[in-house]
Structure formats: C-alpha cells, structure tokens
C-alpha cells in the first residue's frame, strides 16, 4: 500500500523505515491471519525489538555512567602523564647528550693516556739502554781501576828495582 507521510526526516530515512516495517509484516505473513492481525503481530514484534533495544540502551548507559563521569579526571590524568613523559623525555635526551659528551671526553683522555704510555715505554727503553751502558761503563771503570792498581804495583816494583 502507498501512504503519504509528512515528517522532518529526509526522504531516504522515511523509505528505510517503511521498508523495515514492510519486511516485518512479510515475516508474519500467514494465510490464517487477517491483515489486521498481521499488522498487529508485526507491530508487536517491532515493539518487542524496540523494548529490548531500550533495555540494552539503559544497561549500556548504566555501564557507561562511571566512565563518562570519570572521563574528565582521566583526561586530566592523561594530560598530566603526557607532560611528565615529555619532561622525562627531555631529561633523558639531556642525559644522553651529556653521556655522549662524557664518552667523547673519555675517548680523548684515553687517547692522551695511550700517547703517554707510549712515551713512557719509549723512555723506559732508553733508560734500560742507558742503565746497560752505565753498567758496562762501571764494569770498564772497575777493570781500569784494577788495571791501574796493577800498574801502580808494577811501577812500585820497578822503582824498587831501580
């Protein structure tokens, strides 16, 4: 059947509602029922769906009540956490930069230490060489002193003989 309706809803929405009602009437279509009974049964089925949806809506509304009430506080807590995170992140970045700078200084100092160690090793080699030379010179000096003593004895003996 065609009906003329006036509504603030747009045409597409009215057509969708009419198609839904028509579908519900067809679901209860039965030769044993009069047209009025079919319409009444379809209306009852639609009302039952609507009632169940209202109960579900109330349940969802009750479940959402606490989160909705807590939302402003949660949002504020979230914003506070974001600010804390940004501060920690900035502190971390500064610490990371300081650490990298310290590592560079450590590398530079290690380089200086390695140069000094090399210089010490070179000087130790020179000292060992000089110690060896000094030891040889002392040995030679001792030998020369011994030879000198021997020669002095010989000179004295020769003087006696003269």
Automatic annotation (TrEMBL):
<feature type="coiled-coil region">
    <location>
        <begin position="106"/>
        <end position="161"/>
    </location>
</feature>
<dbReference type="InterPro" id="IPR053712">
    <property type="entry name" value="Bac_CellDiv_Activator"/>
</dbReference>
<keyword id="KW-0132">Cell division</keyword>
<keyword id="KW-0131">Cell cycle</keyword>
<keyword id="KW-0175">Coiled coil</keyword>
<dbReference type="GO" id="GO:0051301">
    <property type="term" value="P:cell division"/>
</dbReference>
<dbReference type="InterPro" id="IPR007838">
    <property type="entry name" value="Cell_div_ZapA-like"/>
</dbReference>
<protein>
    <submittedName>
        <fullName>Cell division protein ZapA</fullName>
    </submittedName>
</protein>
<dbReference type="Pfam" id="PF05164">
    <property type="entry name" value="ZapA"/>
</dbReference>
<dbReference type="InterPro" id="IPR036192">
    <property type="entry name" value="Cell_div_ZapA-like_sf"/>
</dbReference>
């Amino acid at each position: 059947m065609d009906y003329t309706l006036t509504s603030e809803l747009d045409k597409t929405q009215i057509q969708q509602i009419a198609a839904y009602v028509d579908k519900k009437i067809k679901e209860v279509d039965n030769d044993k029922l009069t047209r009025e009974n079919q319409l009444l049964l379809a209306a009852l089925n639609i009302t039952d769906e609507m009632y169940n949806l209202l109960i579900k809506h109330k349940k969802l509304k009750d479940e959402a009540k606490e989160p909705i009430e807590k939302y402003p506080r949660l949002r504020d807590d979230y914003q506070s956490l974001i600010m804390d995170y940004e501060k920690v992140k900035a502190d971390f970045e500064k610490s990371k930069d300081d650490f990298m700078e310290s590592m560079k200084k450590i590398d530079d100092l290690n380089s200086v230490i390695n140069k000094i160690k090399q210089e010490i090793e070179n000087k130790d080699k020179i000292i060992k060489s000089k110690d060896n030379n000094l030891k040889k010179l002392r040995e030679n000096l001792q030998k020369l002193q011994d030879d000198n003593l021997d020669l002095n004895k010989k000179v004295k003996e020769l003087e006696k003989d003269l």
